[in-house]
Here is the input.
Amino acid sequence: MVFWYNCSMTSTQKIHNYFNPKQLKLPLSLDIKIPFDSEARTFDEVFSHLEVDKHLVTERDTRGRIGYNPVNMLKLILFCQMEKIQSLRDMEKAARNDIRIMWLTDELMPSHQTIKTFMDHYLVSGIQDIFYELNRYLIERENIKTRRLYIDGTKIESAANKYSFVWRGSILKSRDKLHLKITKQIGKLNERYRASDLCFSIYEAYDAEYLRKVQTFLADEIRLENICFVSGKGRHKTALQRDYEKISEYLNKLNEYEKHLEVMGPERNSYAKTDACATFMHMKEDHMRNSQLKPGYNVQIGVSDEYILHMDISSERNDYKTLIPFLEGYHRAYQRYPKYPVADAGYGGLSNYRYIKENGMKLYQKYSMYEKDTHDKKRMNDPYLGIHLKRDDEGNYVDPMGKALEHRYRNNRGNDVYYVPSKDKNIELNGELIEYQKEAIKNLQSKLGIILRVQRSIQVEGAFGVLKESFKMRRFRRKGTENVRLEFFLAAIGYNLDKFHNKRYRTIQ
Here is the structure.
């Protein structure tokens, strides 16, 4: 027994002496290494059903070498999103070390700069079509109930500097002060040229074109008198040079203010200098705990059966103005409207309700006073509240005593003001909005409405939670609406692919 043991040990040592762990060995195909339930196999199955070639068309530069296969590049990027890898350098590292990616992309190993160039040339314009094509496959494959769409929004911080802000109020105030300075300077010019019967017009506000004409006149006068500009200590400037420099300074400032207002547009009150598309908003994550405004974007998503079917990026601070563009975008993508667009109180209002009814959708959106109208006992028992007032046979509002309310006038908000005889006071009503609110209350308190409200909280809030925690979408990496849209579309594609894989094997188990 001892002799056998010694021989055995000697034989094992010889085997290890001749064994090299890094030598070539079978299998040579990576396919054998990929488990049947791997994320890569799910991704490959889904990707094989998509016609992505038509979305990867761009004007290729004929100079230099032929680039990487765009389909394999897209596989690399989308699978990395599915695996929650968003950094370009992490994508480069994964392509060199992850056998699943090697198997999917035929061992493609691009640099991070190559990945960025591909995104800029192909995906900025094509990612939206790829997203909706994937969703159409998932809708058919998973039998997603597209009649129900759960809508909500969140604010995600921009990559802009927090302190590069431009405020509309400050710009308007500074511009008004500048107009006063221009008026003072024009008055001095009129005093100087009174003897020559020359007079410049004085206004309350000035535009750049007017100042440019004054500047041109002063430049002609300087050439006629052959004046050379001087500068520096101890050198006396002529009156014409001082006037010309002042008008030029005011013209540059006026152009600067007009440019700020043009970038801001009529709807916004602020923007960031380092990301002109970002608006300063209140964020849920306030690290300084002082309600500091930070540059960000308002991200809207629509979820159905746990999948993100539609998304939109907006610079609007509130959700109310985003609903109609959001539903219009959904209709362009799927050629239909959802029958039950469910949203919280930030979306309910007259224009949104009217749009929803005109397009054949149902009112399952709360309004700002919904909770009080349905839970506050004092308000619920108030017979003079708009939703509780009744109408007579002629359609006139009547108070609880049966007396008709007297219509006084329509205010500038488009609401009717009525006089209530029994209370000797005026009340403000909007008949169209009241009818919409009654319908919304009835729908939301029905059995279907309760189910939809619960599912909205679970599905859309859950989707945002996963995107922020697992996909690290708390702050965008890119700047500009188009680039931010690309970044969120990629994250939404990764979310849907990951959801499809998890639901698939959850069902099998």
